[in-house]
Amino acid sequence: MKKIGFLSFGHWTPSSQSATRTAGDALLQSIDLAVAAEELGADGAYFRVHHFARQLASPFPLLAAVGAKTKRIEIGTAVIDMRYENPLYMAEDSGAADLIAGGRLQLGISRGSPEQVMDGWRYFGFSPDKNGSEEEMARRNAEVYLSALQGNGFAEPNPRPMFPNPPGLLRIEPHSPTLKERIWWGSSSNATAVWAAKLGMHLQSSTLKTDENGRPFHVQQAEQIRAYRDAWKAAGHEREARVSVSRSIFALVTDRDHAYFGRQSESDDTIGFIDDKTRAIFGRGYAAEPDALVEQLRADQAIAEADTLLLTVPNQLGVDYNAHIIESILKHVAPALGWR
């Protein structure tokens, strides 16, 4: 059995060929797709966060709206860039959204990826410590955020408050008691996956990974997942670790499917640089008729290691077509692989 959800980047563009021409379209259609995915029996609705871009950005209004419109489906991010976040304000926002959703948030956070502007986090008022790096800043913010989610008091109360306070130091409110157990770290390297395991965060691994040994993408990703699970076990956490991987997967069952994605059936891993120093490997997409697709996915070692699969969806093709993409995987592919 495997949890299957979708991951949307929420692109929008004022083009006649796009079904999402405004930011409002992207947000409202994201809610509609989450509702449709729940009705189809999918397990998760996840959203990417990018700043200074025509994509989904501030996630918590969207997550709260999805939570109010749905009843069962997990609602998450993959990922929130912690270089841009005030961790205490984020604890308030996420606590409120999780309470609205009835405790269904699964928040992926991370160091983030290259953004649309240079050092965009500086415009948000954040900068690394002297001689520190932006990666260290993101991990520090993550640790402060996790600490706030513990719910322990840390702030000295005003001796003459406007409203009565409970005794002792005050904590961030509203507090969602179990949200800390549902935080994931988006990791591109083995080392940060191990770090996340030690802190008790679940693991999100996407279609991009630091190229650490030249092996195929899915093999390196499976190695990363095994290193993460070993570190989780060594840390002695009582909870069960969860791991998600994301993939572009299209079952070709209609003429429209073939027209859109038929040419992707022979795609391969690619190599590139996400910055001046980091060589990365990008995983292939999958597009084939269901029987062939089942055999291709059966050979993906990282999917086999993960308990959760996030299907990246082309949101600009509209809610109905993206619901069809999800339904095709649930109906024609997942049962043959034992995921349903």
TrEMBL record:
Record bears the keyword Oxidoreductase: yes
InterPro entries reported in the protein's UniProt record: Bact_Lucif_Oxidored, Luciferase-like_dom, Luciferase-like_sf
Record key words, sorted: Oxidoreductase
Enzyme Commission designation: 1.-.-.-
Annotated coiled-coil segments of the chain: none
GO MF term set: oxidoreductase activity
Signal peptide: none
Keyword RNA-binding set for record: no
Domain (Luciferase-like): residue spans on this chain: 8-258
UniProt-listed Pfam families: Bac_luciferase
Name listed for the protein in its UniProt record: LLM class flavin-dependent oxidoreductase
Lineage of producing organism: Bacteria, Pseudomonadati, Pseudomonadota, Alphaproteobacteria, Hyphomicrobiales
